[in-house]
Specification:
Blueprint lengths: L18 E7 H11 L8 E10 L3 E10 L6 E4 L1 E4 L1 H14 L2 E7 L10 H18 L4 E5 L5 E10 L2 E6 L2 E5 L4 E4 L14 H7 L1 H9 L1 E5 L3 H12 L4 E5 L24 H12 L6 E5 L6 H7 L4 E4 L4 H13 L4 E11 L2 E12 L14 H8 L6 H5 L14 H20 L9 E5 L4 E5 L28 H13 L1
Parallel strand pairs: 1-3, 1-10, 6-7, 12-13, 12-15, 13-14, 15-16
Antiparallel strand pairs: 2-3, 2-6, 4-5, 7-8, 8-9, 10-11, 16-17, 17-18, 18-19
Helix pairs in contact: 4-5, 6-7, 6-12, 9-10
C-alpha cells in the first residue's frame, strides 16, 4: 500500500486498556469477500465505516458501511495502494456520519494474517489523521483466501507513534456465527480424551470455535442453570453469568445448581461454584455479575459476549437483549414457557425457542415482549402487587408456572441452537422458531418467519452505541438487593 500525505494536528482518542474485537453481518462479510478476493489473484482494498460497542472489558468495532473505491481510487499491481483522494473521501463520510474508519484489504494466503512492513507503514501513517478527525482509532482488517479475517486497533502511544492492538476475534453474525480467532490471544484448547465423542460429532475445529466463545447467560433460573451446566460440561471456557436474584425455597424443585444449603445465596455465586465443579475444560473463566441486564453493569457485561442466552421472563430485559442482537451484533438465543389452565386445572403447555440476529425475525415481532409491557415494567408497576392483582388471571405477566421437565427440554433446545449457529453441523445452521406443543405432543418449526412490515429494528443493525443505550434503573433488582441486605 502507498500513501502520500502528512499528519494534521492530532486530537487523540483515549482507548481503554481492554480487549478489542470486530463484528459485521453475514451480508457485509459476504460482500467484502466477493470484492476483496479477486479472480486474478491480486490483493485489493476498501475503506469502511464503523461504530463502537463498548462493554465492560471489550470494545467492538461494528462495521456497517462499505465505501467501495471508484475508478482511480486505488492502484492494483499485485499489491495494492489507495490514493489520497480516496482516503479524504472516507474521512469526509466518517466525519459527516459520526463514525470511525476501517481499512480492509486482502492477502494471498489462508488463515489469520500478520502484517507486512508495507501494511504497517500504510496503517500507521493514517492512524493519527483518522483519530484527529473522528475521535475514534483506525481499525485495520486483513482477509485471507479462506475467508479468515484478522484485525487490529491502532492506539496512540506518544507523538506520532501508535501501538497495534490485535483483536481477539472477528465475528460475522446472521444466519450463522462465523468467528476468526487470534490464536495467540485465545489459544486452541488442548484436546482431551473426554471430548473424543463430542469432537467426533462436529469436528475438532468446530469444537475449538465453540470452546473459545464468550457465552453470556442472562437469568440463572431453571433454564439458565441447565444451560450453564450443559455448556461447561461440553468444554466451553468463557462465561458471563448475569442475575441479581438469590436462591429461594420455591426454586429448589427446578434449579439444578442449588440445594437447601444455598437458600439465600446469590444465584451467580451458586451457579459459578457448580460450573467450576462440573467443568471439563482445563481452564474455565466465569465472570459473575449480580446485577440486572437492565442496569449499566449488567448491560455492559452482556456487550462483552459473543453469544447470549436469554433465560428471562420480564419484557424489559427481553427488549434490551433484542436490541443487543441487532444493534450490537450479538446473537441472542431466547426461550420461554407458557403453561395453560382451564377452570383451575392444567390444560397444556408450550415452550418456544428462537435465535435472533440480523436477517432473522426479532423478539418483538415474535410476541416475546411488547414495548407497552416493557414501559410498564420500567415504571415499576410489575413490582407493585396491587397492579399485578388487577391483571386477568391468564395475563402473560402472571403466568410463571414451571416444572423441571419443561425447563430441561427448553434448555436442551437452546443449546442445540448454539451448536447449529456456530458449527453448522450436518449443514444445519438455524432451526428457525421452534415450539413444542404438549397437545398433540409435537415440535413445530418455522424457518420462514420474518419481521412485520412496520418493524424498524433493522435500521439499527450494527450501529452499536451510535444512537442510544437502553440501560437504567431496575426496581426489581433494587428490591432484591434490599431484601438480600436485610437477610444478611
Amino acid at each position: 500500500m502507498l500513501v502520500g500525505f502528512f499528519h494534521k494536528s492530532i486530537k487523540y482518542f483515549s482507548m481503554p486498556k481492554a480487549e478489542n474485537s470486530i463484528a459485521f453481518t453475514n451480508e457485509v462479510d459476504q460482500d467484502l469477500q466477493t470484492f476483496l478476493l479477486r479472480q486474478d489473484c491480486q490483493e485489493d482494498l476498501t475503506f469502511g465505516l464503523w461504530t463502537p460497542s463498548r462493554g465492560s472489558q471489550r470494545t467492538s468495532a461494528l462495521i456497517h458501511t462499505i465505501l467501495y473505491p471508484e475508478e482511480g481510487d486505488r492502484l492494483v499491481h499485485g499489491n495494492v495502494a489507495f490514493t489520497k483522494r480516496y482516503f479524504e473521501h472516507a474521512c469526509k463520510r466518517a466525519m459527516s456520519e459520526g463514525c470511525g474508519i476501517a481499512l480492509l484489504h486482502s492477502h494471498l494466503g489462508p488463515g489469520w494474517q500478520g502484517m507486512s512492513p508495507d501494511d504497517v507503514v500504510a496503517e500507521t501513517r493514517i492512524a493519527g489523521t483518522v483519530e484527529s478527525l473522528t475521535d475514534l482509532p483506525l481499525v485495520g482488517l486483513t482477509l485471507g483466501t479462506d475467508g479468515t479475517w484478522s484485525a487490529r486497533f491502532w492506539r496512540h502511544v506518544k507523538g506520532k507513534k501508535f501501538k497495534r492492538l490485535w483483536c481477539r476475534n472477528v465475528r460475522s453474525v446472521g444466519a450463522q456465527l462465523r468467528v476468526s480467532f487470534a490464536d495467540h490471544l485465545i489459544p486452541i484448547p488442548e484436546f482431551q480424551e473426554m471430548f473424543k465423542r463430542t469432537v467426533t460429532v462436529w469436528g475438532e475445529r468446530e469444537h475449538a470455535n465453540l470452546a473459545r466463545l464468550r457465552i453470556g447467560i442472562v437469568g440463572l433460573g431453571s433454564v439458565g442453570s441447565l444451560v450453564a451446566e450443559t455448556l461447561v460440561r461440553m468444554g466451553l471456557q468463557h462465561f458471563v453469568i448475569i442475575d441479581f436474584d438469590e436462591v429461594q425455597t420455591h426454586n429448589l424443585d427446578r434449579l439444578v445448581t442449588a440445594t437447601r444449603r444455598d437458600i439465600g445465596k446469590l444465584k451467580v455465586e451458586v451457579t459459578a461454584r457448580r460450573m467450576k465443579a462440573a467443568a471439563t475444560a482445563k481452564q474455565v473463566f466465569i465472570e459473575k455479575v449480580p446485577f440486572s441486564v437492565v442496569e449499566e453493569r449488567g448491560y455492559r457485561a452482556a456487550l462483552d459476549c459473543d453469544v447470549i442466552f436469554s433465560c428471562v421472563d420480564r419484557p424489559r430485559a427481553r427488549k434490551i437483549l433484542n436490541h443487543l442482537a441487532f444493534a450490537h451484533l450479538i446473537p441472542v438465543i431466547d426461550g420461554g414457557i407458557a403453561v395453560r389452565f382451564k377452570k383451575g386445572e392444567f390444560s397444556g403447555v408450550d415452550w418456544q425457542v428462537q435465535t435472533v440476529a440480523p436477517g432473522r425475525v426479532c423478539l418483538e415481532c415474535l410476541g416475546a415482549f411488547t414495548s407497552a409491557d416493557a414501559s410498564t415494567e420500567e415504571a415499576g408497576m410489575l413490582d407493585t402487587p396491587s397492579y399485578l392483582q388487577g391483571l386477568p388471571q391468564d395475563h402473560s405477566l402472571k403466568r410463571n408456572e414451571n416444572v423441571f421437565p419443561f425447563s430441561s427440554n427448553l434448555a436442551s433446545l437452546e443449546v442445540f441452537h448454539l451448536v447449529a449457529l456456530v458449527t453448522g453441523a450436518a449443514g444445519q445452521t438455524e432451526f428457525g422458531v421452534q415450539r413444542f406443543r404438549w397437545i398433540p405432543g409435537i415440535l413445530d418449526y418455522d424457518v420462514e418467519r420474518k419481521c412485520e412490515p412496520y418493524c424498524d429494528i433493522n435500521l439499527l443493525v450494527g450501529h452499536g452505541d451510535r444512537h442510544f443505550q437502553l440501560f437504567g434503573r431496575d426496581p426489581g433488582a433494587e428490591l432484591a438487593r434490599a431484601r438480600q441486605a436485610v437477610s444478611n
